[in-house]
């Protein structure tokens, strides 16, 4: 019997597992065949069909001589659960018992900057209260490792570009502030019980693209709030606007439009595997912490900024669709340039994001053409 077969699979719970990032993180976890994935999602902005597709990819990737343990790693324990209801969360943990879940990757959140300025209480409840409830239930069940999905929006308008993790946190939108608050709570918890808790916050820049199979991808409900899926929906004919509205061209950037740091969603997903490894008992990543608290934050980005107009041009090449755009006024809460300094994550976690913008656009368009109406459409690629 191989040593890997002797070791039971590690149970890792992924919140927001059916979403765009969550489904690709689950894909990366299953690809290792080291983990048993538990997904919780309330399907506010996702569909359970994504998990069916991810599990299909995992089964298809199994070797012909797969062990029972390997086959088990390809099946997802999926729960529909609302994180703002602690009793629902507790029921999931009770199924596995004390110490039964090794760690949590907490991705679930509302994430639209503009919407957060209109309904801030909803954002604080769903993103901050839910994180507190989740941590309290984790503590009850001796599950004290968390990888937290944070965001580059925690920096607000950063004083230095590219942005190092040491930058002061000064979010400008309620959404960004929910991420700062949740990071603060995690840091406080790790400081209060340093021998018990370990946590890493991953500050995502702009994930893009999809799994190259076209089986899973970004499928926002309603009109996409992010630029790349919006362009994909325009090119496929789902968004009828003939003209893209570009918010401002008078920013202090090379072409005047906002600059963002895009990275492939599968590169981002691999960052979560590295973060889980860093929560291992023998990990050295916390050795440089200034106090006993074992808490760290890392940027996940490429370190190369792309302007709105550059993205439009890349999608024009990928899709063959002649996008028209018009410049309108700036949008409240938008920051001119969010480009990561990824040095710390490269050095301490071994993180890299090699996929280029052309690959991201190609994989996004492959997903969109195979699934013009997303997971729910009549033409969706069969799982």
From TrEMBL:
Residues 12-283 form the NAD-dependent epimerase/dehydratase domain. Its EC number is 5.1.3.2. GO terms for molecular function: UDP-glucose 4-epimerase activity. Transmembrane segments: none annotated. Its cofactor is NAD(+). One of its GO terms (biological process) is galactose metabolic process. It is an enzyme of class 5 (isomerase). It catalyses: UDP-alpha-D-glucose = UDP-alpha-D-galactose. Keywords: Carbohydrate metabolism, Galactose metabolism, Isomerase, NAD. Pathway: Carbohydrate metabolism; galactose metabolism; Carbohydrate metabolism; hexose metabolism. One of its GO terms (cellular component) is cytosol. The keyword Lipid metabolism does not apply. Mutarotase converts alpha-aldose to the beta-anomer. It is active on D-glucose, L-arabinose, D-xylose, D-galactose, maltose and lactose. NCBIfam families: galE. Belongs to the NAD(P)-dependent epimerase/dehydratase family. Homodimer. This is UDP-glucose 4-epimerase. It comes from Obba rivulosa. The lineage of its organism: Eukaryota, Fungi, Dikarya, Basidiomycota, Agaricomycotina.
């Amino acid at each position: 019997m191989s040593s890997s077969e002797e070791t039971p699979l590690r149970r890792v719970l992924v919140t927001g597992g059916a979403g765009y990032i969550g489904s690709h993180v689950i894909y990366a976890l299953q690809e290792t065949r080291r983990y048993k994935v538990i997904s919780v999602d309330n399907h506010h902005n996702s569909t359970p069909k994504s998990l069916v597709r991810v599990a299909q990819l995992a089964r298809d990737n199994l070797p012909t001589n797969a062990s029972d343990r390997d086959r088990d790693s390809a099946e997802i324990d999926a729960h529909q659960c609302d994180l703002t209801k602690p009793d629902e969360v507790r029921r999931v943990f009770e199924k596995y018992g004390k110490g039964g879940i090794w760690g949590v990757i907490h991705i679930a959140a509302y994430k639209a900057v503009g919407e957060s300025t209109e309904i801030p209480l909803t954002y604080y409840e769903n993103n901050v209260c839910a994180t507190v409830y989740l941590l309290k239930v984790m503590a009850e069940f001796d599950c004290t490792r968390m990888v937290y999905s944070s965001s580059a929006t925690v920096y607000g308008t950063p004083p230095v570009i590219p942005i190092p993790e040491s930058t002061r946190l000064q979010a400008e939108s309620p959404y960004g502030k929910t991420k700062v608050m949740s990071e603060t709570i995690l840091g406080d918890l790790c400081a209060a019980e340093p021998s018990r808790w370990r946590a890493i916050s991953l500050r995502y820049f702009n994930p893009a693209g999809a799994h190259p199979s076209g089986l899973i991808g970004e499928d926002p409900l309603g009109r996409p709030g992010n630029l790349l899926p919006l362009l994909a929906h325009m090119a496929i004919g789902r968004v009828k606007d003939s003209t893209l509205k570009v918010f401002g061209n008078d920013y202090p950037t090379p072409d005047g439009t906002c600059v963002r740091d895009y990275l492939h969603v599968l590169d981002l997903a691999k960052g979560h595997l590295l973060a889980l490894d860093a929560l291992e008992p023998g990990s050295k990543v916390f050795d440089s912490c200034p106090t006993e608290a074992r808490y760290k934050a890392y940027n996940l980005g490429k370190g190369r900024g792309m302007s709105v107009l550059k993205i439009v041009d890349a999608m024009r090449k990928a899709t063959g669709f002649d996008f028209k755009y018009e410049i309108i006024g700036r949008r409240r809460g938008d920051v001119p340039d969010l480009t990561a300094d990824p040095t710390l994550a490269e050095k301490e976690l071994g993180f890299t994001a090699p996929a280029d913008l052309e690959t991201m656009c190609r994989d996004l368009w492959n997903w969109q053409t195979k699934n013009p109406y997303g997971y729910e459409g009549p033409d969706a690629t069969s799982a």
